[in-house]
Each structure stands twice: as C-alpha cells, then as structure tokens.
Design brief:
- The chain has a domain of 86 residues.
- Helix content is 45%, strand content 7%.
- The protein is built from ten helices and five strands; from the N terminus they run E-H-H-H-H-E-E-H-H-H-H-H-E-E-H.
- Strand 2 and strand 3 form a beta hairpin.
- The chain starts with a strand and ends in an 8-residue tail after the last helix.
- It is found in: Lysosome.
- It is an enzyme of class 3 (hydrolase).
- Keywords: Carboxypeptidase, Disulfide bond, Glycoprotein, Hydrolase, Lysosome, Protease, Signal, Zymogen.
C-alpha cells in the first residue's frame, strides 16, 4: 500500500503545542496579507462583546450584518463568535492561488480579498464591525446570491462535514486554544469539560480524547511504510502534521506556499513553485514504491512443491 497524505493532525493531542499553534498559523496567513487585517479581527471580538450586551446592540448587528435570525441570548452570541472563528480558519485553509469552491465559492487568494476590506483597526466599534462584515462577505456571499447571513449553519456546510463534527466529538478530538495576543482570536483556553458538555448537547456522546493516538499510534508510526506526508505551511493543520522524514519510506515534505492539500488538487497554471515541486517528489516516491512492489510480487513463486 502506497499513500500520499495531505497534511492532517496525526500528532495533535491533549496539551500539545499544536493546539496553540493552529490559531497562530491562521493569524500569520492574515498578517501576511496585511498586519492591519489581523489586528482588525483581533479587536472585533471585544467590539462584538460590547455591542451585543443588550437588545439594541443585537438589533444593530441583525440589520448591519443582515442576519437571517436575530440573536437572543448569550448562547446565540457565542454561536456567532464560533461561526466567525470557523470562517477565518476556513479562509486560511483554502487560501488557494485560483478561484475554488471547496468550502465555499471563493476568489483566488481569498485571505487577501478579505483583507482588502479590513484596513483600519482604529475605527470605533460599530464602524469596525461594518468592515468585518464586508470582509466576511467574501466568504459568506462571494456569489452575491446569499439572501441573508445564517450563522446557525456551519461555516463549511457545503462540505457536508457534520460527520467530521461527530468524529471530533468522539475519537478525533482536536484541542484548539488561543490567547488573543499571539493570535487574532478571542482568548480561549482549552477546556475539556466544556467541550464535553457541548458534545453531549449536540450529539449525546462523550469525547474520547486519547482514542486517536491509541488507534493510530500518534507519533509512533515507525513500523509503517510507503507514506509521503505533505505539509503546506499556509494550512493551520500543518501544526499537527509529520514534518520530518522518519525513514526512507516515511517521507515528509514541507510546502511553504501550500494551503490545505493544495498539492493533492488538480494542477493549475497558478500553482506556486513549491507545490509543483512537491507533486514531483510525491510522484517519484510513489512510482518507486509501486515498481518495487511489482518486482517483489514477480519474485514470489506461485507455490512450493515439497516431498
């Protein structure tokens, strides 16, 4: 069996540095487009908290952000912030150099397109949130066909990822946290107890945070073979990837210009050089392993006659 694995959180585990680093990579993607962009997003969380503290503020956000359903209690406010977090994260993941429709219809380099609207972090709270809405509309309404903003739906519903959400609440627990200083997100420590409550409410299941390392071995994969682990550094999931080759048949590739599994997508004239080179390396190793397997099979006799 030969495999080329686009970056995935093989090494993510409770308390791992990857839990902190994930949000920092997302932030770096936005900061690369514009430092003011990341700072505007960082300040938006406090602006939301201040404005949404009363009914007047909730009505303001409903009209200015064209929400499908008005916000009511604190749970709705928390859901809105979760939805926003997913939007920024998804944009970093799919920051492809050409228009694509993986998680949502998006232009080329969507992070840059978003940041063109987030240019002044010194605005007052209401004006700053008006900018945020223009930016997030690149993700939520690039086609111009969306009638209203439905934050009750997952930000990547086009992928049909409810199955992934269930997995993340059972055996594929991925801790995420941020401090709001080294990243652009609202400060949020990892809290397994609260995460468990959320999973119980939504899926009626208890997370098993150590199940994935138990099943798949975590970092202990040296007995495996014939795998290329590709890591796009624009992809926040690279923080949990295998970034060093472990043997001559467990190969790690680092792709500085790679977004989420960009090397595994169809070739495009706008692919950056590091992605093109990564594909060549992947092909070389997989071709080598296939040829070796075919040769070994030819050398195995059909049967042994004894007696």
């Amino acid at each position: 069996l030969n495999a080329s694995q686009g970056v995935s959180p093989v090494n993510c585990k409770i308390g791992a540095e990857a839990a902190i680093a994930f949000n920092r990579v997302v932030t770096a993607d936005f900061s690369s487009a514009s430092a003011e962009c990341a700072e505007t997003i960082r300040k938006s969380w406090k602006a939301l908290s201040k404005i949404l503290v009363n009914d007047e503020g909730k009505e303001w956000i409903r009209t200015h952000w064209n929400l499908c359903v008005p916000l009511k209690g604190t749970e709705d406010v928390a859901n809105l912030k979760d939805w926003l977090t997913n939007v920024w994260t998804n944009l970093a993941m799919v920051n492809y150099p050409y228009p694509a429709n993986f998680l949502a219809p998006l232009p080329a380099y969507p992070v840059k397109a978003v940041c063109e609207h987030l240019t002044n972090s010194t605005l007052d709270d209401h004006s700053l949130l008006d900018e945020i809405f223009k930016g997030l509309s690149v993700y939520a309404n690039f086609t111009g066909q969306t009638q209203c903003l439905d934050v009750s739906q997952q930000a990547d519903q086009s992928l049909g990822d409810m199955g992934w959400d269930f997995q993340a609440c059972t055996e594929m627990v991925m801790p995420m946290c941020g401090d709001g200083i080294n990243d652009m997100f609202e400060a949020q420590p990892w809290n397994l107890e609260k995460y468990t409550e959320k999973c119980l409410k939504k899926w009626k299941v208890n997370p098993r945070p150590l199940m994935a390392p138990l099943i798949y071995g975590g970092r202990n994969i040296s007995s495996s073979s014939n795998i290329v682990f590709s890591n796009g550094l624009l992809d926040p999931w690279s923080t949990g990837g295998v970034t060093k080759s472990l043997s001559d048949s467990l190969i790690a590739i680092i792709i500085p210009e790679g977004a989420h599994h960009l090397d595994l997508r169809a070739a495009d004239p706008n692919d950056p050089p590091s992605v093109i080179k990564a594909r060549e390396i992947e092909k070389q190793f997989i071709s080598k392993w296939i040829s070796s397997t075919k040769r070994d099979r030819k050398e195995i006799p059909k049967s042994f006659i004894v007696g």
